[in-house]
């Protein structure tokens, strides 16, 4: 049994045994007439139990559909609805193939124009060669479930670090079987009525072949159509130049635990501390970081709910009016 599974089993034991142990302790304190102490212990234990059950068992299994609108001066043409899915981590606690089927159905119901997948489809940290065959098979079946995604402009993907550790070639092949276009330091032009655009996908920072090459990938853009950069990590955003309409990233899990006052105590990378979750504007350069779906290391989420995103990318209202001309 993997470490996160052990933690989840311990959480279940605590959830079941906690109220019983609390009741016995409080009853003993009350019988000895220590009323204030007994009430305090009961209140603190109840609060800890509720928060623990929520963080380990409830919130990680939820799914939020997050709607975001981004205005970018580098965008031209009609608004684009982008479905964003990241960090599914199949075979980690809380995520199996059935859950991927449900979130695919949720995304299809949103009717996005295009869907992008931002990596970390595999759960766990071990390579495929040391995984049990059923677990490795489950991960690949989870990836192939993306075949059911439906959007007029298709589904496009990059890989993440967990995919590199598992077997990036096998993950890439499974995405291919699902009719997903993998952009590994590659740009693809997407044609649509009233304005094409480019998707420029960056390689994973832990790729066994080569890391993300921002400049080389953007050189594949051969016309003036607007560009959207896809990356698993937010870190390459530092190298994304002005003129790119939007960069989309995952990896951070929104910190996975976001405590009141203290905030996010753990960051998945150096840039994740600066850009942990949500929309950022760096001098006109736009970055959106999704918290993704799954969990890693610990089977917990607190105030960082699993999400899929429907992002509407559009030109600023002033540019829209100018493009429309006089009335």
Low-confidence stretches: none
The profile of the biggest β sheet is: 6 strands, mixed
Strand arrangement, largest sheet? Answer: 1-14-2-3-4-5
Query: Kindly state the mean pLDDT as a whole number?
Result: 90
How many individual β-strands? 14
Helical amount among residues, as a percent range? 25-40%
Which homologous superfamily in CATH is the superfamily of the largest domain? Metallo-dependent phosphatases
What is the structural class? alpha/beta
Question: What count of structural domains?
Answer: 2
Question: Under CATH, the topology of the largest domain is which?
Answer: Purple Acid Phosphatase, chain A, domain 2
H/E topology pattern:
HHEEHEHEHEEEHEEEEHEEEH
Structure characterization notes:
The chain is globular and about 80 Å long. Helices cover 35% and strands 19% of the residues. α6 (214-218) links the parallel β7 (197-201) and β8 (227-230). The chain is of the alpha/beta class and 327 residues long. It has helices at 3-31, 35-58, 97-109, 133-144, 161-177, 214-218, 270-274, 317-324, and strands at 64-71, 80-85, 114-117, 155-157, 181-182, 186-190, 197-201, 227-230, 246-249, 258-259, 263-264, 278-282, 285-289, 307-314. It is built from eight helices and 14 strands. α4 (133-144) packs across α5 (161-177). The protein has two domains: 3-58; 63-321, Metallo-dependent phosphatases (Purple Acid Phosphatase, chain A, domain 2, 4-Layer Sandwich), CATH 3.60.21. The strands form three sheets. The protein has a six-stranded mixed β-sheet with strand order 1-14-2-3-4-5, with helices on one face. It has a six-stranded mixed β-sheet with strand order 6-7-8-9-13-12, with no helix packed on it. It has a two-stranded antiparallel sheet with strand order 10-11.
């Amino acid at each position: 049994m993997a470490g996160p599974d052990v933690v989840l089993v311990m959480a279940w034991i605590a959830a079941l045994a906690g109220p019983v142990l609390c009741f016995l302790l409080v009853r003993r304190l009350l019988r000895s007439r220590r009323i204030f102490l007994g009430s305090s212990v009961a209140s603190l234990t109840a609060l800890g139990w509720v928060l623990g059950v929520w963080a380990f068992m409830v919130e990680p299994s939820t799914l939020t559909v997050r709607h975001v609108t981004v205005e970018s001066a580098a965008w031209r043409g009609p608004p684009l609805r982008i479905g964003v899915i990241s960090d599914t981590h199949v075979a980690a606690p809380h995520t199996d193939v059935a859950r991927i089927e449900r979130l695919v159905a949720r995304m299809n119901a949103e009717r996005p124009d295009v869907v992008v997948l931002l990596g970390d489809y595999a759960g766990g940290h071990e390579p495929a060669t040391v995984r049990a065959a059923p677990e490795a098979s489950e991960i690949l079946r989870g990836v192939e479930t993306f075949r059911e995604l439906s959007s007029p402009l298709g589904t496009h993907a990059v890989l993440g670090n967990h995919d590199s550790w598992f077997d990036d070639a096998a993950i890439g092949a499974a995405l291919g079987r699902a009719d997903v276009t993998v952009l590994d330091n590659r740009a693809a032009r997407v044609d649509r009525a009233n304005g094409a655009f480019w998707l420029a996908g960056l390689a994973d920072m832990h790729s066994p072949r080569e890391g993300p090459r921002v400049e080389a990938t953007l050189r594949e853009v051969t016309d003036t159509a607007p560009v959207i950069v896809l990356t698993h990590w937010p870190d390459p955003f530092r190298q994304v130049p002005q003129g790119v309409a939007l960069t989309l990233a995952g990896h951070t899990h929104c910190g996975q635990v976001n405590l009141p006052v203290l905030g996010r105590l753990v960051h998945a990378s150096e840039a994740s501390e600066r850009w942990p979750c949500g929309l950022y504007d760096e001098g006109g350069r736009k970055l959106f970081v999704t918290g993704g779906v799954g969990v890693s290391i610990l089977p917990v989420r607190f105030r960082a709910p699993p999400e899929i995103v429907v992002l509407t990318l559009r030109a600023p209202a002033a540019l829209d009016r100018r493009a429309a001309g006089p009335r």
